[in-house]
C-alpha cells in the first residue's frame, strides 16, 4: 500500500506526473498509527498558474468533443473505479482512518454519482422561448462555464471531489483540483489517475497539492477559473466567497453544519436510537450532516437516553482495518485535541458526561453529554467528531426553536409516528435538507444538495449541476423585420 501512495504522490499538470518545486513537503500520514505513507513537494503559485493555463487550453477542445464521446470517458472511469474498488477502499482506510464500513459507503456514493455524471454529458443544450415581438425566436443555450477550480475536504475526499469534478467534466469544463493536505492521494491524484487511464485528454483535469502558506489566494484569485467549488468549513468558505465575489467569479459552497435529530413524543424510540447513533458517529462524526444535537421530547427522554447510551457503549473503537471497528481515528492530532477540549468545556459549563470516551493518539472514543446550559456556545457550533449532545425539550414549539438556534442550516431529521406531522415540522426548519423518520446523513445523485445560512451557497446534484457548472447565452433570431422608433 505504501508504494501505491508513493506512485501517486506527485503533481498532475497538463497530463504530466511531476514533483512540485515548492520549498517544503506535505507529509501524508496514516492517522491511526502515524505511518508515513508518502511525501509530496508542494506546488508553487507558478505551478497553479501552469495547471490553470493547461485547463483553459484543453477545455476548448474538450467542450467541442462529441457528447457521446465525453460520456464514454466517464463510463470508462466508472468501470475503472469498480475494477480498483478494493485498492481504493484500502487507501481510504490508510489515508483518512476510515473504517471498512465507511470506505464501502464512500465508494458506493462515488459510483452512483459518477454514473449520474456520465448521463449529464447528454443533458439538453438549451431551449426555445416565445417572444412578445412578432417574428422573433429566442434561443437559450447552455454552455460550459469554462474552467472550474475544485477545493476538496478531508472527510469524504474521494467522493466529494468527484461530486464536482465529474459533472464539471461531463458538461465540457476543464478542472483544476486542489485536495486537502491530509488526503492528497485519495482526494486528488487517485482521481486524476482514474481519468487519465479512462482516456481524458491531457490538461482537461489537473491536480495541484499545495497549501495557502505557499500560494496564498492564488488558487481562487487566478483569472482563469470562472467557478470555484469549495467543500469545507464555513470560516474558509466565507473567505472563498469574499474573494470570488470581488472578482465576479461564481462560488459554489458546501460548508459545515450543526444538524439536529429530533425525537417527538410519538416516535418509535428504538428506531430513533438506531438512526441517532448512526447519524452522530458515522466516520467518527466527521460528516457535515452529522447529528451534533439530539433533541428528545421529555415524554420519552428517559427511555431514549438509556437505550442511546447503551448502544453507544457497544461501538467498537480501534484499528480501522478491522472489519469490526465502528470508530476509527480522527484525521489528525489537532482535531483530537479540539474534541478533548470540547468535552472538557462542556463539563466545565456544568454538563454531565453519560459516556466519556478516552483518547489514545488520534483515536477518540465516543462521548455522550447531557445537561448543557441552554446558552452554551457548544450547542450552536459544529463539532466534527464523536461527541453527542442530548437536549430534552417540551413540545414541538420548543423543539423548532432549538433546532433553528444555530447559524447553520444543512441537514436534520425528525422522528414521529405521524409522517405528515413530521413533514409539517420539517417545513418550519431553516435548513436545506430535512428527513422524516430517518437519519441526518444522506446524499443522492439527482436530489439538490446544499444548505442555508452558514452552511453554504448553491446546490449540487442532478439538474443543479447545470446551474453550478454551465452558463446560459440568449441568442435571438428575427425571422421577420423589427420596427425601430427612429
TrEMBL record:
Enzyme active site: 254
Record SUPFAM superfamilies: ALDH-like
Residue stretches making up the Aldehyde dehydrogenase domain: 27-475
UniProt keyword terms in alphabetical order: NAD, Oxidoreductase
InterPro entries registered for this protein in UniProt: Ald_DH/histidinol_DH (IPR016161), Ald_DH_C (IPR016163), Ald_DH_CS_CYS (IPR016160), Ald_DH_CS_GLU (IPR029510), Ald_DH_N (IPR016162), Aldehyde_DH_dom (IPR015590)
One Pfam family from the record: Aldedh
Family of this protein: Belongs to the aldehyde dehydrogenase family.
UniProt name for this protein: Aldehyde dehydrogenase
Amino acid at each position: 500500500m505504501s508504494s501505491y501512495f508513493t506512485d501517486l504522490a506527485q503533481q498532475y499538470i497538463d497530463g504530466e506526473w511531476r514533483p512540485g518545486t515548492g520549498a517544503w513537503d506535505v507529509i501524508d500520514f496514516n492517522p491511526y498509527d502515524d505511518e508515513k505513507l508518502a511525501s509530496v513537494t508542494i506546488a508553487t503559485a507558478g505551478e497553479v498558474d501552469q495547471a490553470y493555463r493547461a485547463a483553459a487550453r484543453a477545455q476548448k477542445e474538450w467542450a467541442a468533443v462529441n457528447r457521446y464521446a465525453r460520456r464514454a470517458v466517464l463510463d470508462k472511469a466508472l468501470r475503472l473505479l469498480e475494477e480498483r474498488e478494493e485498492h481504493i477502499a484500502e487507501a481510504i482506510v490508510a489515508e483518512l482512518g476510515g473504517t471498512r464500513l465507511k470506505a464501502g459507503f464512500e465508494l458506493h456514493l462515488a459510483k452512483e454519482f459518477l454514473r449520474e455524471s456520465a448521463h449529464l454529458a447528454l443533458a439538453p443544450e438549451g431551449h426555445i422561448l416565445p417572444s412578445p415581438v412578432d417574428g422573433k425566436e429566442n434561443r437559450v443555450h447552455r454552455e460550459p462555464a469554462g474552467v472550474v477550480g475544485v477545493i476538496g475536504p478531508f472527510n469524504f475526499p474521494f467522493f466529494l471531489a468527484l461530486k464536482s469534478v465529474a459533472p464539471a467534466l461531463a458538461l465540457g469544463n476543464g478542472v483544476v483540483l486542489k485536495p486537502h493536505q491530509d488526503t492528497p492521494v485519495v482526494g486528488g491524484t487517485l482521481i486524476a489517475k482514474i481519468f487519465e487511464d479512462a482516456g481524458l485528454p491531457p490538461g482537461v483535469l489537473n491536480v495541484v497539492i499545495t497549501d495557502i502558506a505557499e500560494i496564498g489566494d492564488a488558487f481562487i484569485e487566478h483569472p482563469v477559473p470562472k467557478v470555484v467549488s469549495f467543500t469545507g468549513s464555513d470560516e474558509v468558505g466565507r473567505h472563498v466567497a469574499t474573494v470570488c465575489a470581488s472578482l465576479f467569479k461564481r462560488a459554489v459552497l458546501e460548508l459545515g453544519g450543526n444538524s439536529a435529530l429530533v425525537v417527538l413524543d410519538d416516535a418509535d424510540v428504538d428506531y430513533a436510537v438506531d438512526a441517532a447513533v448512526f447519524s452522530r458517529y458515522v466516520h467518527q462524526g466527521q460528516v457535515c450532516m452529522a447529528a451534533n444535537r439530539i433533541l428528545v421530547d421529555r415524554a420519552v427522554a428517559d427511555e431514549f437516553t438509556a437505550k442511546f447510551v447503551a448502544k453507544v457503549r457497544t461501538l467498537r473503537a480501534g484499528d480501522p482495518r478491522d472489519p469490526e471497528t465502528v470508530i476509527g481515528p480522527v484525521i489528525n492530532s489537532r482535531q483530537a485535541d479540539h474534541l478533548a477540549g470540547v468535552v472538557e468545556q462542556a463539563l466545565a459549563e456544568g454538563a454531565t458526561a453519560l459516556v466519556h470516551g478516552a483518547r489514545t493518539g488520534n483515536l477518540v472514543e465516543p462521548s455522550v453529554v447531557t445537561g448543557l446550559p441552554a446558552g452554551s456556545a457548544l450547542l450552536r457550533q459544529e463539532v466534527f467528531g464523536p461527541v453527542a449532545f442530548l437536549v430534552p425539550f417540551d413540545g414541538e414549539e420548543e423543539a423548532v426553536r432549538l433546532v433553528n438556534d444555530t447559524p447553520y442550516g444543512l441537514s436534520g431529521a425528525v422522528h414521529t409516528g405521524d409522517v405528515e406531522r413530521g413533514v409539517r415540522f420539517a417545513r418550519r426548519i431553516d435548513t436545506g435538507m430535512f428527513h422524516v423518520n430517518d437519519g441526518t446523513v444522506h446524499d443522492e445523485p439527482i436530489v439538490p444538495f446544499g444548505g442555508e445560512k452558514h452552511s453554504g451557497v448553491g446546490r449540487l446534484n442532478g439538474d443543479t449541476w447545470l446551474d453550478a457548472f454551465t452558463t446560459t447565452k440568449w441568442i435571438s433570431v428575427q425571422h421577420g423585420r423589427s420596427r425601430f422608433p427612429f
